[in-house]
Amino acid sequence: MPETYLTDRQIGERFGVHHLTPRRWVREDPTFPRPVKLSPGCTRWKLSEIEAWEALKAKVSAK
Questions:
Q1: What is the CB neighbour count within 10 angstroms for residue 48?
Q2: Cα separation, 22 vs 52, whole angstroms
Q3: Quick one: residue 41, left, alpha or beta (phi over 0 = left, psi -120 to 50 = alpha)?
Q4: Which residues lie closer than 8 Å to 46 by C-beta, 6 or more apart?
Q5: To 10 degrees, what angle do helices 21-28 and 8-15 make?
Q6: CA 24 to CA 11: how far, in whole Å?
Q7: What is the DSSP string of the chain?
Q8: Among 2, 4, 50, 55, which residue's Cβ finds the most Cβ atoms within 10 Å?
Q9: Are 11 and 20 in contact (CB under 8 A)?
Q10: pLDDT at 15 over 90
Q11: What mean pLDDT, rounded, does the chain reach?
């Protein structure tokens, strides 16, 4: 199955935050997935890694 990639704007929409927030999370949260540079000027996040991070956060907050 091919990997789905998200832009910073799509991640922002997904979590209801500004589109630059995922870039801040990369710097400040070591558990947040690192972006993948697909080509010059094209940086994306793997949806599978974002979903795994969401699950991790949900598990931690449920404790």
A1: 13
A2: 15
A3: left
A4: 3, 4, 5, 6, 33, 36
A5: 90
A6: 12
A7: -PPPEE-HHHHHHHHTS-TTHHHHHHHH-TTSPPPEEEETTEEEEEHHHHHHHHHHHHHHHH-
A8: 50
A9: no
A10: yes
A11: 94
Tokens, residue 60? 């931690």
Confidence of residue 10 (pLDDT cuts 50, 70, 90): very high
- pLDDT tens-digit profile of 24-47? 999 999 999 999 999 999 999 999
**Which amino acid, one-letter code, is at 22?**
P
Distance from C-alpha of 42 to C-alpha of 28, rounded to nearest angstrom: 22
